[in-house]
Design brief:
globular, binds flavin mononucleotide, NADH Oxidase, 211 residues
Amino acid sequence: MKKFLALFLGVLMALTASAASANVKLPDPQTSGGMGLFEALKLRSSAPGGDFPTAMLSDQELSNVLWAATGLNRGDKGWTVPMDRGLPPYVDVYAAIKDGVFLYDWKSHSLVDVSKKDIRPNIGLQNFVASAPCSLIFVANMESLSAVTDDALKAQFSAVAAGAMTQDVYLAAAAMSLGARYIHSIKESEIRSALSLAEGDSVICLMLLGK
Ligand SMILES: Cc1cc2nc3c(=O)[nH]c(=O)nc-3n(C[C@H](O)[C@H](O)[C@H](O)COP(=O)(O)O)c2cc1C
């Protein structure tokens, strides 16, 4: 009986440890101070692809950028970007970095482990995409869009959301002197399989980040 209890506790501890390591809490986002909005608007631009910055963002910078993209900004139902009828965000944001791929969980402001593989070399049609330290991947999530019944509207609403999200990323990047670039030329099927996306989900774009 004692042996069984020890084994049970061991398994439980291993499971708890793996669940904890699968969800990495980000530092709280910076929500005050910093550069003013109009100054950031004046600076917003795409970093040149051919000379894209190669240094990785700090955890705080990544936290700020992801929060800007789709973080909660009013209690537990209100986000930095507008969504149809205030639905929870129906465009998911993944971060592909050297250590693997993570899904941004806006509920807990944390990163969820998706893959340990460095997929950056195989997601963009342009060579420089491979060397950007961080690529955000924007994916329309059809399950989250199930409240929208018309297919054309699903596509339109997710594109509008991705536009708002990527502009927020551009502005946060400008405010923190990071390089950012929107990328449409992607290897969609490679990304789909790396992220094990559901059939109806679609990859909208990438946003490269570096400093
Ligand atoms: C819809 C859209 C698609 C884009 N696709 C790519 C792309 O595939 N590759 C790339 O290097 N840049 C891409 N860009 C970045 C644009 O080339 C860039 O925004 C444009 O040159 C204007 O520069 P600016 O952002 O500094 O104003 C895209 C931008 C948008 C808005």
